[in-house]
Protein backbone atom coordinates (compact mmCIF):
# COMPACT_ATOMS: atom_id res chain seq x y z
CA UNK A 1 0.00 0.00 0.00
CA UNK A 2 1.25 3.47 -0.85
CA UNK A 3 0.18 6.15 1.60
CA UNK A 4 0.36 9.73 0.40
CA UNK A 5 0.74 12.24 3.25
CA UNK A 6 0.56 15.95 2.48
CA UNK A 7 2.58 18.43 4.53
CA UNK A 8 0.82 21.48 3.05
CA UNK A 9 -2.63 22.05 1.57
CA UNK A 10 -3.12 20.68 -1.95
CA UNK A 11 -6.06 20.28 -4.28
CA UNK A 12 -7.82 17.04 -3.31
CA UNK A 13 -8.61 16.21 -6.92
CA UNK A 14 -4.98 16.43 -7.91
CA UNK A 15 -3.89 14.28 -4.98
CA UNK A 16 -6.50 11.69 -5.99
CA UNK A 17 -5.16 11.82 -9.54
CA UNK A 18 -1.64 11.29 -8.23
CA UNK A 19 -2.81 8.28 -6.21
CA UNK A 20 -4.40 6.90 -9.38
CA UNK A 21 -1.11 7.35 -11.27
CA UNK A 22 0.82 5.56 -8.54
CA UNK A 23 -1.67 2.71 -8.60
CA UNK A 24 -1.30 2.40 -12.38
CA UNK A 25 2.48 2.40 -12.21
CA UNK A 26 2.99 -0.07 -9.36
CA UNK A 27 -0.25 -2.03 -9.27
CA UNK A 28 -0.49 -1.39 -5.55
CA UNK A 29 -3.29 0.37 -3.71
CA UNK A 30 -2.64 4.03 -3.08
CA UNK A 31 -4.54 6.49 -0.90
CA UNK A 32 -4.31 9.91 0.63
CA UNK A 33 -3.70 9.42 4.37
CA UNK A 34 -4.28 12.99 5.46
CA UNK A 35 -2.21 16.05 6.20
CA UNK A 36 0.55 16.37 8.82
CA UNK A 37 2.58 19.21 10.24
CA UNK A 38 6.31 19.57 9.63
CA UNK A 39 8.28 19.32 12.92
CA UNK A 40 8.82 22.76 14.39
CA UNK A 41 12.60 22.50 14.60
CA UNK A 42 12.93 22.21 10.82
CA UNK A 43 13.23 25.44 8.87
CA UNK A 44 13.27 26.25 5.16
CA UNK A 45 14.82 24.86 3.08
CA UNK A 46 13.86 21.53 4.59
CA UNK A 47 16.47 18.90 5.24
CA UNK A 48 14.78 15.94 3.57
CA UNK A 49 16.80 13.23 5.30
CA UNK A 50 16.18 14.71 8.73
CA UNK A 51 12.51 15.29 8.03
CA UNK A 52 11.93 11.67 7.07
CA UNK A 53 13.47 10.39 10.28
CA UNK A 54 11.76 12.95 12.51
CA UNK A 55 8.20 12.66 11.20
CA UNK A 56 6.07 10.95 13.84
CA UNK A 57 2.53 9.71 14.04
CA UNK A 58 2.25 8.14 10.59
CA UNK A 59 0.17 4.99 10.78
CA UNK A 60 1.36 2.36 8.33
CA UNK A 61 1.94 -1.37 8.11
CA UNK A 62 5.40 -2.85 7.72
CA UNK A 63 5.34 -3.11 3.94
CA UNK A 64 3.55 0.19 3.38
CA UNK A 65 5.38 2.96 1.59
CA UNK A 66 4.77 6.50 2.76
CA UNK A 67 5.18 9.42 0.37
CA UNK A 68 5.24 12.94 1.83
CA UNK A 69 4.41 15.88 -0.41
CA UNK A 70 5.40 19.41 0.39
CA UNK A 71 5.35 22.68 -1.47
CA UNK A 72 8.36 23.95 0.45
CA UNK A 73 11.87 23.81 -0.89
CA UNK A 74 14.15 20.91 0.00
CA UNK A 75 17.75 21.65 0.88
CA UNK A 76 20.35 20.75 -1.74
CA UNK A 77 22.80 18.11 -0.61
CA UNK A 78 26.58 18.39 -0.68
CA UNK A 79 27.81 15.08 -1.99
CA UNK A 80 31.11 13.62 -3.09
CA UNK A 81 30.11 14.10 -6.74
CA UNK A 82 28.99 17.72 -6.27
CA UNK A 83 25.91 19.63 -5.18
CA UNK A 84 22.79 17.56 -5.78
CA UNK A 85 19.53 19.30 -6.72
CA UNK A 86 16.88 17.77 -4.46
CA UNK A 87 13.34 17.69 -5.81
CA UNK A 88 12.81 14.57 -3.69
CA UNK A 89 14.51 12.11 -1.41
CA UNK A 90 13.90 8.48 -0.47
CA UNK A 91 15.22 6.07 2.12
CA UNK A 92 16.51 3.45 -0.26
CA UNK A 93 14.85 0.05 0.26
CA UNK A 94 12.94 1.36 3.26
CA UNK A 95 9.54 2.94 3.69
CA UNK A 96 9.64 6.74 3.52
CA UNK A 97 10.12 9.24 0.73
CA UNK A 98 9.43 12.90 0.17
CA UNK A 99 8.85 15.06 -2.91
CA UNK A 100 8.60 18.79 -3.28
CA UNK A 101 6.45 20.80 -5.68
CA UNK A 102 8.59 23.87 -5.12
CA UNK A 103 9.25 25.72 -8.33
CA UNK A 104 5.99 24.63 -9.94
CA UNK A 105 3.02 26.95 -10.13
CA UNK A 106 0.44 24.40 -9.01
CA UNK A 107 -0.12 20.68 -9.10
CA UNK A 108 -2.59 20.86 -11.96
CA UNK A 109 -0.34 22.54 -14.51
CA UNK A 110 2.75 20.62 -13.49
CA UNK A 111 1.23 17.27 -12.79
CA UNK A 112 3.53 15.22 -15.03
CA UNK A 113 6.90 16.21 -13.55
CA UNK A 114 5.53 15.91 -10.01
CA UNK A 115 4.06 12.48 -10.72
CA UNK A 116 7.30 11.40 -12.36
CA UNK A 117 9.23 12.52 -9.32
CA UNK A 118 6.82 10.64 -7.06
CA UNK A 119 7.27 7.49 -9.14
CA UNK A 120 11.02 7.79 -8.89
CA UNK A 121 11.09 8.20 -5.13
CA UNK A 122 8.72 5.29 -4.56
CA UNK A 123 10.81 3.29 -7.04
CA UNK A 124 13.81 3.93 -4.79
CA UNK A 125 11.75 2.62 -1.86
CA UNK A 126 11.27 -0.60 -3.83
CA UNK A 127 15.02 -0.85 -4.49
CA UNK A 128 15.17 0.58 -8.00
CA UNK A 129 18.25 2.50 -9.11
CA UNK A 130 18.50 5.29 -11.64
CA UNK A 131 17.86 4.18 -15.19
CA UNK A 132 19.63 4.76 -18.49
CA UNK A 133 16.42 5.33 -20.45
CA UNK A 134 15.39 9.02 -20.65
CA UNK A 135 11.73 7.99 -21.04
CA UNK A 136 11.75 6.11 -17.74
CA UNK A 137 10.75 7.81 -14.51
CA UNK A 138 13.89 6.43 -12.86
CA UNK A 139 16.09 8.63 -15.07
CA UNK A 140 18.07 11.12 -12.93
CA UNK A 141 15.72 14.03 -12.07
CA UNK A 142 18.20 16.85 -12.69
CA UNK A 143 18.44 16.15 -16.42
CA UNK A 144 16.62 18.61 -18.73
CA UNK A 145 14.40 15.95 -20.32
CA UNK A 146 13.09 14.62 -17.01
CA UNK A 147 10.19 17.01 -16.59
CA UNK A 148 8.89 16.53 -20.12
CA UNK A 149 8.39 12.76 -19.93
CA UNK A 150 5.37 10.67 -19.00
CA UNK A 151 5.04 9.18 -15.50
CA UNK A 152 5.82 5.60 -16.59
CA UNK A 153 8.60 3.06 -16.21
CA UNK A 154 10.72 1.37 -18.83
CA UNK A 155 10.28 -2.39 -19.23
CA UNK A 156 13.29 -3.24 -17.10
CA UNK A 157 12.29 -1.02 -14.18
CA UNK A 158 8.67 -2.15 -14.32
CA UNK A 159 9.69 -5.81 -14.25
CA UNK A 160 12.07 -5.18 -11.40
CA UNK A 161 9.50 -3.30 -9.34
CA UNK A 162 6.95 -6.06 -9.93
CA UNK A 163 9.48 -8.63 -8.81
CA UNK A 164 10.21 -6.66 -5.65
CA UNK A 165 6.50 -6.33 -4.96
CA UNK A 166 6.01 -10.07 -5.31
CA UNK A 167 8.84 -10.68 -2.83
CA UNK A 168 7.38 -8.30 -0.26
CA UNK A 169 6.44 -9.86 3.05
CA UNK A 170 2.72 -9.24 3.03
CA UNK B 1 44.14 -11.75 -6.50
CA UNK B 2 41.66 -9.00 -5.68
CA UNK B 3 43.00 -5.63 -4.76
CA UNK B 4 43.85 -5.03 -1.13
CA UNK B 5 43.42 -8.58 0.07
CA UNK B 6 47.02 -9.77 0.33
CA UNK B 7 46.71 -10.03 4.09
CA UNK B 8 43.30 -9.94 5.68
CA UNK B 9 42.81 -10.10 9.41
CA UNK B 10 39.14 -10.24 10.22
CA UNK B 11 37.48 -9.63 13.54
CA UNK B 12 33.88 -9.75 14.66
CA UNK B 13 32.10 -6.53 13.69
CA UNK B 14 34.28 -5.78 10.65
CA UNK B 15 32.58 -4.68 7.47
CA UNK B 16 33.74 -6.59 4.43
CA UNK B 17 32.79 -6.83 0.78
CA UNK B 18 31.96 -10.23 -0.63
CA UNK B 19 32.30 -10.26 -4.44
CA UNK B 20 28.96 -10.26 -6.23
CA UNK B 21 27.10 -10.17 -2.88
CA UNK B 22 27.80 -6.77 -1.43
CA UNK B 23 28.67 -5.36 1.94
CA UNK B 24 28.62 -7.87 4.80
CA UNK B 25 29.36 -7.65 8.51
CA UNK B 26 31.41 -10.34 10.22
CA UNK B 27 29.22 -11.74 12.98
CA UNK B 28 31.31 -14.67 14.24
CA UNK B 29 34.56 -16.54 13.75
CA UNK B 30 34.19 -20.06 15.09
CA UNK B 31 35.63 -23.55 14.75
CA UNK B 32 33.28 -26.19 13.38
CA UNK B 33 33.73 -29.85 12.67
CA UNK B 34 32.86 -30.79 9.12
CA UNK B 35 33.38 -34.38 7.89
CA UNK B 36 35.77 -35.10 10.72
CA UNK B 37 37.87 -32.00 10.07
CA UNK B 38 38.02 -28.99 12.31
CA UNK B 39 37.69 -25.83 10.25
CA UNK B 40 37.58 -22.20 11.25
CA UNK B 41 34.57 -20.48 9.68
CA UNK B 42 33.99 -16.79 9.26
CA UNK B 43 30.27 -16.06 9.50
CA UNK B 44 29.04 -12.94 7.73
CA UNK B 45 25.65 -11.32 7.38
CA UNK B 46 24.79 -9.36 4.29
CA UNK B 47 23.77 -5.89 5.39
CA UNK B 48 21.15 -5.48 2.70
CA UNK B 49 18.90 -8.36 3.71
CA UNK B 50 20.65 -10.19 6.55
CA UNK B 51 21.52 -13.27 4.47
CA UNK B 52 24.06 -15.46 6.26
CA UNK B 53 27.30 -16.54 4.58
CA UNK B 54 29.86 -18.91 6.13
CA UNK B 55 33.32 -19.10 4.58
CA UNK B 56 36.28 -21.22 5.74
CA UNK B 57 38.97 -18.86 6.92
CA UNK B 58 41.49 -20.39 4.55
CA UNK B 59 39.28 -19.54 1.58
CA UNK B 60 38.50 -15.96 2.52
CA UNK B 61 41.28 -14.42 0.45
CA UNK B 62 40.93 -16.68 -2.56
CA UNK B 63 37.20 -15.92 -2.77
CA UNK B 64 38.02 -12.24 -2.91
CA UNK B 65 36.58 -11.06 0.38
CA UNK B 66 38.11 -7.72 1.30
CA UNK B 67 37.53 -4.89 3.69
CA UNK B 68 35.27 -2.01 2.68
CA UNK B 69 37.09 0.61 0.63
CA UNK B 70 38.29 3.79 2.28
CA UNK B 71 37.68 7.42 1.31
CA UNK B 72 40.86 7.46 -0.79
CA UNK B 73 39.60 4.59 -2.93
CA UNK B 74 36.27 6.36 -3.33
CA UNK B 75 38.09 9.47 -4.50
CA UNK B 76 39.85 7.39 -7.14
CA UNK B 77 36.53 5.96 -8.27
CA UNK B 78 35.06 9.42 -8.73
CA UNK B 79 38.15 10.51 -10.66
CA UNK B 80 37.76 7.50 -12.91
CA UNK B 81 34.05 8.14 -13.44
CA UNK B 82 34.75 11.77 -14.29
CA UNK B 83 37.40 10.88 -16.85
CA UNK B 84 36.31 10.72 -20.45
CA UNK B 85 38.90 8.15 -21.41
CA UNK B 86 36.84 5.00 -21.14
CA UNK B 87 35.61 3.55 -24.41
CA UNK B 88 33.32 0.58 -24.50
CA UNK B 89 34.41 -2.56 -26.29
CA UNK B 90 32.17 -3.28 -29.25
CA UNK B 91 33.07 -6.97 -29.27
CA UNK B 92 30.31 -8.42 -27.09
CA UNK B 93 32.20 -11.60 -26.24
CA UNK B 94 35.28 -9.77 -25.08
CA UNK B 95 33.13 -7.27 -23.21
CA UNK B 96 31.12 -9.95 -21.44
CA UNK B 97 34.24 -11.85 -20.40
CA UNK B 98 35.98 -8.73 -19.11
CA UNK B 99 32.93 -7.59 -17.20
CA UNK B 100 32.39 -11.01 -15.64
CA UNK B 101 36.02 -11.08 -14.53
CA UNK B 102 35.68 -7.65 -12.97
CA UNK B 103 32.53 -8.65 -11.13
CA UNK B 104 34.05 -11.91 -9.89
CA UNK B 105 37.09 -10.08 -8.57
CA UNK B 106 34.81 -7.66 -6.78
CA UNK B 107 37.17 -4.67 -6.75
CA UNK B 108 35.67 -1.22 -6.34
CA UNK B 109 37.42 0.16 -9.41
CA UNK B 110 36.40 -2.95 -11.35
CA UNK B 111 32.73 -2.33 -10.60
CA UNK B 112 33.11 1.33 -11.55
CA UNK B 113 34.65 0.19 -14.83
CA UNK B 114 31.66 -2.05 -15.54
CA UNK B 115 29.21 0.76 -14.78
CA UNK B 116 31.08 3.34 -16.79
CA UNK B 117 31.73 1.02 -19.73
CA UNK B 118 28.10 -0.04 -20.05
CA UNK B 119 26.87 3.48 -19.52
CA UNK B 120 29.08 4.73 -22.35
CA UNK B 121 27.87 1.85 -24.52
CA UNK B 122 24.25 2.75 -23.79
CA UNK B 123 24.92 6.14 -25.36
CA UNK B 124 25.49 4.31 -28.62
CA UNK B 125 22.59 1.84 -28.43
CA UNK B 126 20.21 0.44 -25.80
CA UNK B 127 21.75 -2.31 -23.72
CA UNK B 128 20.57 -5.89 -24.22
CA UNK B 129 18.74 -7.45 -21.28
CA UNK B 130 21.69 -9.39 -19.88
CA UNK B 131 23.95 -6.37 -19.93
CA UNK B 132 21.22 -4.20 -18.49
CA UNK B 133 20.99 -6.64 -15.58
CA UNK B 134 24.75 -6.66 -15.23
CA UNK B 135 24.76 -2.87 -15.23
CA UNK B 136 22.12 -2.83 -12.52
CA UNK B 137 23.98 -5.36 -10.36
CA UNK B 138 27.27 -3.52 -10.72
CA UNK B 139 25.60 -0.22 -9.91
CA UNK B 140 23.91 -1.73 -6.87
CA UNK B 141 27.19 -3.11 -5.50
CA UNK B 142 29.02 0.12 -6.26
CA UNK B 143 26.36 2.24 -4.58
CA UNK B 144 26.21 0.07 -1.46
CA UNK B 145 29.98 0.03 -1.05
CA UNK B 146 30.36 3.77 -1.59
CA UNK B 147 27.57 4.35 0.91
CA UNK B 148 29.39 2.12 3.40
CA UNK B 149 32.74 3.77 2.72
CA UNK B 150 31.42 7.32 3.09
CA UNK B 151 29.03 6.37 5.88
CA UNK B 152 26.07 7.88 4.09
CA UNK B 153 22.72 6.65 2.79
CA UNK B 154 22.41 4.65 -0.42
CA UNK B 155 20.34 7.40 -2.00
CA UNK B 156 23.07 9.96 -1.37
CA UNK B 157 25.73 7.59 -2.68
CA UNK B 158 23.77 6.95 -5.87
CA UNK B 159 23.13 10.62 -6.44
CA UNK B 160 26.83 11.32 -5.91
CA UNK B 161 27.73 8.80 -8.62
CA UNK B 162 25.05 10.04 -11.00
CA UNK B 163 26.02 13.66 -10.57
CA UNK B 164 29.27 12.60 -12.23
CA UNK B 165 27.80 10.26 -14.82
CA UNK B 166 24.82 12.50 -15.67
CA UNK B 167 25.98 16.08 -15.02
CA UNK B 168 23.07 18.40 -14.12
CA UNK B 169 21.57 20.46 -16.92
CA UNK B 170 23.13 18.35 -19.66
CA UNK B 171 21.65 15.55 -21.73
CA UNK B 172 23.72 12.48 -22.38
CA UNK B 173 25.59 12.69 -25.67
CA UNK B 174 24.63 10.48 -28.59
CA UNK B 175 27.61 8.47 -29.71
CA UNK B 176 28.40 6.86 -33.02
CA UNK B 177 30.06 3.53 -33.75
CA UNK B 178 32.99 5.42 -35.27
CA UNK B 179 33.90 6.73 -31.82
CA UNK B 180 34.32 3.18 -30.59
CA UNK B 181 36.38 1.98 -33.54
CA UNK B 182 39.92 1.01 -32.59
CA UNK B 183 42.46 3.64 -33.42
CA UNK B 184 45.24 2.76 -35.87
CA UNK B 185 47.77 0.68 -33.97
CA UNK B 186 45.13 -0.76 -31.64
CA UNK B 187 43.89 -3.35 -34.06
CA UNK B 188 44.54 -7.04 -34.46
CA UNK B 189 48.29 -6.73 -33.97
CA UNK B 190 47.76 -6.06 -30.32
CA UNK B 191 45.54 -9.07 -29.87
CA UNK B 192 48.49 -11.31 -30.55
CA UNK B 193 47.01 -12.68 -33.76
CA UNK B 194 49.59 -13.61 -36.27
CA UNK B 195 49.11 -14.15 -39.96
CA UNK B 196 48.25 -17.83 -39.65
CA UNK B 197 45.40 -17.23 -37.24
CA UNK B 198 43.99 -14.58 -39.49
CA UNK B 199 44.06 -17.01 -42.39
CA UNK B 200 46.73 -15.13 -44.29
CA UNK B 201 49.62 -16.75 -46.07
CA UNK B 202 53.13 -15.46 -46.05
CA UNK B 203 52.75 -14.41 -49.66
CA UNK B 204 51.36 -10.99 -48.94
CA UNK B 205 52.93 -8.04 -50.61
CA UNK B 206 54.42 -6.44 -47.58
CA UNK B 207 57.49 -4.30 -47.30
CA UNK B 208 60.56 -6.41 -46.41
CA UNK B 209 60.87 -4.98 -42.89
CA UNK B 210 57.29 -5.97 -42.11
CA UNK B 211 57.74 -9.45 -43.54
CA UNK B 212 60.41 -10.21 -41.02
CA UNK B 213 58.30 -9.58 -37.97
CA UNK B 214 55.80 -12.47 -38.09
CA UNK B 215 58.52 -15.01 -38.85
CA UNK B 216 60.48 -14.01 -35.76
CA UNK B 217 57.40 -14.03 -33.65
CA UNK B 218 56.48 -17.52 -34.78
CA UNK B 219 59.89 -18.92 -34.14
CA UNK B 220 60.15 -17.47 -30.71
CA UNK B 221 56.68 -18.62 -29.76
CA UNK B 222 57.30 -22.13 -31.07
CA UNK B 223 60.52 -22.46 -29.20
CA UNK B 224 59.04 -21.23 -25.99
CA UNK B 225 57.02 -24.41 -25.96
CA UNK B 226 53.64 -25.28 -24.68
CA UNK B 227 54.50 -24.67 -21.06
CA UNK B 228 54.81 -20.99 -21.62
CA UNK B 229 51.60 -20.75 -23.56
CA UNK B 230 49.39 -20.83 -20.54
CA UNK B 231 51.54 -18.40 -18.69
CA UNK B 232 51.50 -16.08 -21.64
CA UNK B 233 47.75 -15.92 -21.94
CA UNK B 234 47.24 -13.35 -19.21
CA UNK B 235 49.99 -10.97 -20.23
CA UNK B 236 48.69 -11.19 -23.78
CA UNK B 237 45.27 -10.15 -22.64
CA UNK B 238 46.78 -7.28 -20.74
CA UNK B 239 48.81 -6.31 -23.75
CA UNK B 240 45.67 -6.39 -25.85
CA UNK B 241 43.94 -4.06 -23.43
CA UNK B 242 46.80 -1.61 -23.37
CA UNK B 243 46.82 1.02 -26.10
CA UNK B 244 49.62 0.62 -28.58
CA UNK B 245 52.22 3.28 -28.30
CA UNK B 246 53.62 2.71 -31.76
CA UNK B 247 57.13 1.84 -32.78
CA UNK B 248 59.38 -0.99 -31.62
CA UNK B 249 60.21 0.71 -28.34
CA UNK B 250 56.62 0.89 -27.20
CA UNK B 251 55.89 -2.75 -28.03
CA UNK B 252 55.38 -5.08 -25.07
CA UNK B 253 58.45 -7.15 -24.21
CA UNK B 254 58.24 -10.69 -25.54
CA UNK B 255 58.53 -13.56 -23.18
CA UNK B 256 60.39 -16.79 -23.66
CA UNK B 257 63.75 -17.61 -25.09
CA UNK B 258 65.13 -15.04 -27.53
CA UNK B 259 65.12 -16.15 -31.17
CA UNK B 260 68.19 -17.93 -32.50
CA UNK B 261 70.50 -15.83 -34.61
CA UNK B 262 69.77 -16.54 -38.23
CA UNK B 263 72.46 -17.72 -40.59
CA UNK B 264 73.46 -15.21 -43.21
CA UNK B 265 71.57 -15.47 -46.41
CA UNK B 266 68.49 -16.76 -44.67
CA UNK B 267 66.97 -13.32 -44.58
CA UNK B 268 65.31 -13.70 -47.89
CA UNK B 269 63.81 -17.06 -46.91
CA UNK B 270 60.06 -17.25 -46.97
CA UNK B 271 58.39 -17.20 -43.54
CA UNK B 272 58.05 -20.66 -42.06
CA UNK B 273 54.62 -22.10 -42.62
CA UNK B 274 52.82 -24.00 -39.95
CA UNK B 275 51.41 -27.48 -40.33
CA UNK B 276 52.63 -30.60 -42.12
CA UNK B 277 55.15 -29.92 -44.88
CA UNK B 278 53.91 -30.75 -48.37
CA UNK B 279 54.94 -34.11 -49.82
CA UNK B 280 57.74 -33.98 -52.36
CA UNK B 281 56.24 -34.18 -55.81
CA UNK B 282 57.58 -36.76 -58.26
CA UNK B 283 59.36 -35.33 -61.25
CA UNK B 284 57.22 -34.88 -64.29
CA UNK B 285 54.09 -34.64 -62.21
CA UNK B 286 54.04 -30.87 -62.42
CA UNK B 287 51.85 -30.88 -65.46
CA UNK B 288 49.42 -33.31 -63.90
CA UNK B 289 45.88 -32.04 -63.64
CA UNK B 290 44.75 -31.13 -60.17
CA UNK B 291 43.06 -33.99 -58.42
CA UNK B 292 39.31 -33.82 -58.61
CA UNK B 293 37.21 -34.22 -55.54
CA UNK B 294 34.46 -36.75 -55.10
CA UNK B 295 33.97 -40.34 -56.19
CA UNK B 296 36.01 -41.33 -59.26
CA UNK B 297 33.91 -42.08 -62.33
CA UNK B 298 33.15 -45.74 -63.02
CA UNK B 299 35.21 -47.30 -65.79
CA UNK B 300 33.02 -47.42 -68.83
CA UNK B 301 32.76 -50.65 -70.74
CA UNK B 302 34.27 -50.53 -74.18
CA UNK B 303 31.85 -49.63 -76.89
CA UNK B 304 29.47 -48.10 -74.41
CA UNK B 305 30.51 -44.56 -75.25
CA UNK B 306 27.67 -44.20 -77.69
CA UNK B 307 25.19 -45.70 -75.30
CA UNK B 308 22.11 -43.68 -74.67
CA UNK B 309 21.90 -41.78 -71.39
CA UNK B 310 19.89 -43.56 -68.79
CA UNK B 311 16.28 -42.51 -68.84
CA UNK B 312 14.61 -41.30 -65.75
CA UNK B 313 11.35 -42.47 -64.40
CA UNK B 314 9.73 -45.82 -64.18
CA UNK B 315 11.13 -48.50 -66.49
CA UNK B 316 8.73 -49.60 -69.25
CA UNK B 317 6.57 -52.57 -68.54
CA UNK B 318 7.76 -55.91 -69.75
CA UNK B 319 6.14 -56.65 -73.07
CA UNK B 320 5.46 -59.93 -74.69
CA UNK B 321 8.39 -61.58 -76.43
CA UNK B 322 6.99 -61.03 -79.93
CA UNK B 323 7.04 -57.26 -79.77
CA UNK B 324 10.34 -57.00 -77.84
CA UNK B 325 12.59 -56.92 -80.87
CA UNK B 326 10.42 -54.32 -82.61
CA UNK B 327 10.34 -52.11 -79.52
CA UNK B 328 14.08 -52.25 -79.11
CA UNK B 329 14.54 -51.10 -82.67
CA UNK B 330 12.09 -48.24 -82.13
CA UNK B 331 13.81 -47.19 -78.89
CA UNK B 332 17.19 -47.15 -80.54
CA UNK B 333 15.81 -44.98 -83.31
CA UNK B 334 14.37 -42.55 -80.77
CA UNK B 335 17.63 -42.37 -78.88
CA UNK B 336 19.66 -41.72 -82.00
CA UNK B 337 17.27 -38.92 -82.89
CA UNK B 338 17.54 -37.48 -79.41
CA UNK B 339 21.31 -37.61 -79.56
CA UNK B 340 21.36 -35.86 -82.90
- Which class of secondary structure composition applies to the elements of chain B? alpha+beta
Which class best fits the helix and strand makeup of chain A? alpha/beta
- What fraction of residues of chain B sit in β-strands? 5-15%
Helices of chain B, by number, come to 10
- What is the CATH topology of chain A? Collagenase (Catalytic Domain)
Write the layout of secondary structure elements.
The complex is a heterodimer of chains A (170) and B (340).
Chain A: E1 2-6, H1 12-26, E2 30-35, H2 48-54, E3 65-70, E4 77-79, E5 82-84, E6 88-90, E7 96-100, H3 111-125, H4 155-167
Parallel strand pairs in A: 1-2, 1-3, 3-7
Antiparallel strand pairs in A: 4-5, 6-7
Helix pairs in contact in A: 1-3
Chain B: E1 15-18, E2 22-34, E3 37-46, E4 52-56, H1 60-63, E5 66-67, H2 71-82, H3 92-105, H4 108-122, H5 129-150, H6 154-165, H7 177-180, H8 208-241, H9 247-250, H10 321-339
Antiparallel strand pairs in B: 1-2, 1-5, 2-3, 3-4
Write up this protein.
The complex is a heterodimer of chains A (170) and B (340). The termini of chain A are close together. Chain A is 29% helix and 18% strand. With 170 residues, chain A is α/β, with parallel strands linked by helices. Chain A has a single domain (2-167), classed as Collagenase (Catalytic Domain) (3-Layer(aba) Sandwich). Among the domains of chain B are: 15-67, Beta Barrel (Thrombin, subunit H), CATH 2.40.10; 71-178, Methane Monooxygenase Hydroxylase, Chain G, domain 1; 188-241, no CATH class. Chain B has 10 helices and 5 strands, in the order E-E-E-E-H-E-H-H-H-H-H-H-H-H-H. Chain B is extended and about 90 Å long. The relative contact order of chain B is 0.07. Residues 1-5 and 187-251 of chain B have low confidence and may be disordered. Chain A binds chain B through residues 49, 77, 79-85, 89-93, 124, 129-130, 132-134, 140, 142-145, 156, 160, and chain B through 48, 74-75, 78, 119, 122, 126-127, 129, 132, 135-136, 139-140, 143, 146, 150, 152-156, 158-164, 166, 168-172. Chain A: It comes from Archangium violaceum Cb vi76. Chain A: This is Peptidase M54.
Amino acid sequence: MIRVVTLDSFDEKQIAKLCQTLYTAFGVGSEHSGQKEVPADLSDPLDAEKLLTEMKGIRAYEDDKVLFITSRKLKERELAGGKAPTPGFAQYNKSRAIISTHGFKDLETSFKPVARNALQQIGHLWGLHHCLDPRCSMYPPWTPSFSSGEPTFCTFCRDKSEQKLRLAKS
Amino acid sequence: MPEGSASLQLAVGDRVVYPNQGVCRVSAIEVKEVAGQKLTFVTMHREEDGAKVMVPQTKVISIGVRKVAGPEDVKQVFEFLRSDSDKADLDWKMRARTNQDRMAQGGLIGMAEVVKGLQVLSELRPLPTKERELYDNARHLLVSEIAAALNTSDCNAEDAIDLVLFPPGRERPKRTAAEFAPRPGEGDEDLGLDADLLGLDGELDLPPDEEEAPAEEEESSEEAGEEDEEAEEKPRKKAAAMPAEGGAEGAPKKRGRPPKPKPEGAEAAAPKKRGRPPKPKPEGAEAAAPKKRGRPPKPKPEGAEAAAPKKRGRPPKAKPAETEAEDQDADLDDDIEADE
